Amino acid sequence: MASRHFSIERGADGSESITVHARGMDVLNNPQINRGPGFTLEERSDLGLHGMLPTAVESLEEQLVRSYSEFLAFETDIEKWVFLTGVQDTNEVLFYALLGEHIEEMLPIVYTPTVGTAIEQFSHMFRRPRGVYLNVKNTADIDRCLAATGLEAEDVDLIVASDAEAILGIGDWGVGGIDIAIGKLAVYTVAAGIDPRRVLAVGLDVGTNREALL
What we know:
Blueprint: E1 6-10, E2 16-20, H1 25-28, H2 41-46, H3 60-73, H4 77-88, H5 92-101, H6 103-110, H7 114-120, H8 122-125, E3 132-135, H9 142-147, E4 158-162, H10 178-192, E5 199-205
Parallel strand pairs: 3-5, 4-5
Antiparallel strand pairs: 1-2
Helix pairs in contact: 4-5, 4-7, 5-10, 7-10
């Protein structure tokens, strides 16, 4: 697997090595390689990150304690969903470590039932695109849309797709239904160990008959 920001090589023994090609803000803006304050001083020097992070270096354990404290500070489930989504969109290593450590408490937040509320409020809380949207009216562009992900067929182990017509008993919510695919993939990663770099959420945009969304 390779992207313009990093590449992964697997040895004959199954070991994995990652080479980061990105530098500076490109590193911090990529949740697959960003470690935030977890970068060592040497790594910060190599990746051009000096001055872009607080000086203190935090272990993953320290980041987990701080992040869980932030999570607990939110009162509503949808606020907690927004927080966890922000972690996922910033630092995937921290996100999956946090979710795995508090799975019973956080599973109802990243998946059902809270994701249903997130889907209903999708247009009011859209932050960072994740996955790929395929429009039924532009089938000629499907190959180009998939190519834009930077993933080849051999790079993907699992796809979760939804046309959002009947989401969790709340009905048709249009493209917002992609959040159910994103949430389900997060569950598969933390519960079954599926590599989050080798999955793809697909939103099948076939329109909607919900008047509130038209």
